[in-house]
Amino acid sequence: MGAGGGRTGRERRAAAGMAARSLAAFGAVLAVCLALTAATNPGFVVRITQAGLDYAHQHGITVLQKELAKLKLPDISGDFPVRRLGKVRYEISSLDLRSFHLPYSRISLVPNVGLQVAISNAFAEVDGNWRVKFHFIRDHGSFNLEVKNVYIKIDLKLGNDASGKPTVSTSACSTRISSVDVHFSGKFGWLYNLFYSAVESRFKKILESKVCDSVVRSVGGDLQHYLQTLPVTAKIDARAGIDYSLVAPPMATAQTLDVDLKGEFFSLAHRGAVPFPPPVLALPPDHDRMVYFGASSYFFNTAGFAYHAAGALVYEITDSMIPKGVEFHLNTSTFAAFIPQLDEMYPNMLMKLRLSAPSAPFLSITPGGISLQPVVDIQAYAILPNTSLAHLFLLSLTGNVSATIDVKSGHIVGKLTVGSRGRCPPAPPSPGSCRQSGPEPSAMSASPPAGHGAPESCGTARVLSPQGQPGAGERGPHAPVALSAQCSSSCVPLQLRCV
């Protein structure tokens, strides 16, 4: 019984392990499916309406007209029975399609398919040679053929391949020719009229089949080959590029054609996975304009992520960049009004401010507007006589930018709200400190350089020796200043003012 009970326990443990593995596998498959579903959301959408197609279709019709003019028509020969006389042998050769005109055309939308090209009242001209044999009568010459009232209808199915490039194929094609007029040159007019009807019907059948054959071959060959050469990425500058590949087949309705693009920026130096998925992007059902563009927060946030990864979100400010005539100068004497120790440690030295983003900016788009909370680190340096830099302080700012955008009378209007706040470690106030006069959070703060610790009291500018201990008598020529200050609630954002 004990042995039997042990085997049962092992079997139960094995069954439990198998169930756990099955559950894990199911979870992995579900996660992959969810990831693939999320990956289909576009970052950028282009909507083309019927008005936009009407404006742009002329270029496509010009290309089609040139392709149809290149049609190669085969020679025609046969026997035509003449009542009481026997058979007339005829040959039509050296056919030359001199022109193919498409005076009336239209490109329309076909729901769930793509586009339809409809052509009416088209006409063409064909030249060639003829030869007939009827008993002992032989004759030859040339002829001119006019094809009138040609109607062509072509359905184009739009899609995309695995690489995100567009695809196109002919899903339907039909051609109808109303009339064909043939004008022969020669002596025996009565003889030509005997086989005229036979030649006319043969010409109509051949041209109707050749037009669709040419369209299918041109779409599946030349046009599709051209689409495969189109790039789906582009270089923006030396740091970043953009991926605008198709994430889904173009979706056609009765009024619009929506093209979903990836809309993802990436770093040229090292392209990696974006750490956030694209949200759902749906355009409103408007179709009055020719073209609409839609961009989600993914489009803008991948731009910030790419440039941050490339190290581009860094900006340095020096005194030489301040316009002449401005009384403010970027030096220790100016900042000594806020931090008196600077003038003692680094008297009348130029400064450099290095602005950087510790993280990529993240934009939020909601029905109420857009909002952005950028975080900026401002590192201040003193430029020493030997051009080396002495780190003075680090100021960390968190901005809060929100905007509402609307369109009125064809103009884009909006309202922009800007605010900021800083971060500083909490500490009790002390004499001479920058005090907060209200219950609101501080409008700005500055924190000490990493590795030097926080000052003893918030709001007091203290000098730290190179060893990191306070003491006025230990100030060295390159000792950093650790600053932690709070502004009153009446301070102007991005200003440091003590009371």
From TrEMBL:
List the molecular function annotations (GO) for this entry: lipopolysaccharide binding
Q: Where is this region: Disordered?
A: 419-479
Does this UniProt record's set of keywords contain Iron-sulfur? no
Q: Has keyword Disulfide bond?
A: yes
Keywords noted in UniProt: Antibiotic, Antimicrobial, Disulfide bond, Glycoprotein, Immunity, Innate immunity, Secreted, Signal
Where in the cell is the protein located?
A: Secreted
Biased composition, Low complexity: where in the chain? 437-457
One GO term (biological process): defense response to Gram-negative bacterium
- Taken from the record, one Pfam family name reads LBP_BPI_CETP
Q: Which GO terms describe its cellular component?
A: extracellular space
Q: Where is the Lipid-binding serum glycoprotein C-terminal domain?
A: 285-498
- Every copy of the Lipid-binding serum glycoprotein N-terminal domain together lies at 47-270
Family from the record: Belongs to the BPI/LBP/Plunc superfamily. BPI/LBP family.
Report the function annotation for this chain.
The cytotoxic action of BPI is limited to many species of Gram-negative bacteria; this specificity may be explained by a strong affinity of the very basic N-terminal half for the negatively charged lipopolysaccharides that are unique to the Gram-negative bacterial outer envelope.
Free-text note regarding domains: The N-terminal region may be exposed to the interior of the granule, whereas the C-terminal portion may be embedded in the membrane. During phagocytosis and degranulation, proteases may be released and activated and cleave BPI at the junction of the N- and C-terminal portions of the molecule, providing controlled release of the N-terminal antibacterial fragment when bacteria are ingested. The N- and C-terminal barrels adopt an identical fold despite having only 13% of conserved residues.
Q: Give the quaternary structure.
A: Monomer. Homodimer; disulfide-linked.
Name of this chain's protein? Bactericidal permeability-increasing protein
Organism of provenance = Meleagris gallopavo
Q: What is the lineage of its organism?
A: Eukaryota, Metazoa, Chordata, Craniata, Vertebrata
